[in-house]
Amino acid sequence: MGGELVIVEEEVKMSAIGAGIDIELPKGNVVIDIGGGTTDIAIISANDIVISRSVKVAGNVFDEEIKKYVRSEYNVAVGERTAENVKKELGSLSKYKGERSVSIYGQDIVSGLPKEVIISSEEVRNVFVNAFSRITDLLIEVMENTPPELAGDIIGNGLTICGGGALVRGIKDYFTGIFNIPCRISPNPLTGVVEGAQIYQKVVNTRLNNDYYGKNGNALRRKNNPTLV
Known about the structure:
- The chain is of the alpha/beta class.
- It is 42% helix and 21% strand.
- It is built from eight helices and ten strands.
- Helix 1 packs across helix 7, helix 2 crosses helix 3 and helix 2 packs across helix 4.
- The protein is elongated, with a radius of gyration of 21 Å.
- About 2% of the residues have low confidence.
- Keywords: ATP-binding, Cell shape, Cytoplasm, Nucleotide-binding.
- This is Rod shape-determining protein MreB.
């Protein structure tokens, strides 16, 4: 791909940078990156990941849970695209104004014929809350294993949510209500990883030019176009 110097970094770390967190500071920050395949939770301080955990509960699982719910509740099989549309249109973790119901179409698992189903915001919310409980449990585990000296930083800095899952309605109130800690959404949840990598690339270039990497710097400075993975 043309990259001379390839640096492998944790995705959640790039998400933090893309969300505007200065990871160089010796202060603890909790980052929750809810992507398509996994949710990664990490506490970052002084340019290092202090503790991190990952669980395979994210956007794809939300789609699957919606499909399972419709099948068990209405005996109708729906496709991935239908489930994703329901997730985007009705997905929430708390009540919101303008709640509604939508019609979806699938295949009756008994007769095999096409069938219409009307599903409400409340039904989808129950599906989401059940799925998010696993993310909540993982966050509790991370918090329990956090070094005591970072506890004050976490309370002050709060939680930062990144990734496509950050767009779920009511997600801030959901986490704030459970942990009683301020919560904020990344300003660019869908593109934060890429933007964070671009920012970090400039940092690496600066370090190479300043011989930050010591003896290796002489060789690395010639490779002034690092690629982040």
